[in-house]
Amino acid sequence: MEGQFGWGREEGGWRKGPWTAQEDKLLVEYVRQHGEGRWNSVAKLTGLKRSGKSCRLRWVNYLRPDLKRGKITPQEESVILELHALWGNRWSTIARSLPGRTDNEIKNYWRTHFKKGKPSKNIERARARFLKQRREMQSQLLLQQQQQGQDQQQRQRQAGDDHDDGAVTREASSSPAVSLAAKHEEDLQMLQQDMDDLLFQFCCPMASSSCLLPGATATSASASEEGSSGDHPQLDGGATWGWGTLWNLDDVVDDVDGGACGGWDTSLFPLLQDQGLAFY
DNA sequence: AAAAAATTCAACCGCTTATTT
DNA sequence: AAAATAAGCGGTTGAATTTTT
């Protein structure tokens, strides 16, 4: 099928380009026998003419059995958006929260769907999903509150049968149920603010001054749009998207050891927690 | 119907970080 | 302790595919 093109020929002893089914088979068999790792010995032991680097990449991004094939779901997309807002282009870190997805896949997804300069239908769809998700959370919360209110009234009535006073004020100030609800609402409000900021960025690309991150400075914001040299960074009118401010967090979030995310209140992202996804 | 443009994504590269010798 | 090797990461590329004109 291939080989007739320049792509896929040998170079410096190593084959390059797309993998054939036979090559895949060899690699899979190697991993079955020897486990993951020691990629440089794949060539020695199997005769496969691929560099260790290439073998590792093929395994990690394509052959691994725990990979989830198929399209990114709306839920996954939400997670990607939230985590990218948190961590910027730390694709592997983001990937850790999406079982079965590779950093490469997420990176590709982000670039094709949300990269600046491509304000497309995709963004509109994402926006619509954001709004929908928000509405759902809102109504859910409302329902919860109503239910809690009813419970409370009931309890008050019961308490009122014995002692008519005191119970109400105590309830309001120290009941765990109430403070929990308040906390939840606080979280929701903060999330909504985040979403709004995000949407604002989506809708008003030129308004780059606002920043989600406490303590983030605008110093590097205008300087370079995430490092990519000026190939297609500009919108038709010459306006650039303001992502730089939002996404380049390396200076802000200094992960001290192994990608730990110091100082972030994870309750800001209830979506992730609801889905049982891990924070680092 | 076909040519052009846009999109997708697997695989590459160079660089950094971790591990081994 | 340091040099060598391996693994990991993020940016970029370009062939194949899909969509638009």
Automatic annotation (TrEMBL):
* Primary residence: nucleus
The record's Gene Ontology cellular component field reads: nucleus
Provide ranges: composition bias, Low complexity.
138-157
Identify the residues that the record assigns to the Myb-like domain, covering every copy.
Answer: 15-63, 64-114
Which keywords accompany this UniProt record? Answer: DNA-binding, Nucleus, Repeat, Transcription, Transcription regulation
List all Basic and acidic residues biased stretches.
158-168
Q: Which GO terms describe its molecular function?
A: DNA-binding transcription factor activity; sequence-specific DNA binding
Which locations, inside or outside the cell, does it occupy? Nucleus
Boundaries of every HTH myb-type domain copy: 15-63, 64-118
For this protein, the record's SMART domains field holds: SANT (SM00717)
Database matches in Pfam families: Myb_DNA-binding
Q: Where do the segments described as Disordered lie?
A: 137-181
Q: What is this protein called?
A: Protein ODORANT1-like
Q: Which organism is it from?
A: Panicum miliaceum (Proso millet)
Taxonomic classification: Eukaryota, Viridiplantae, Streptophyta, Embryophyta, Tracheophyta
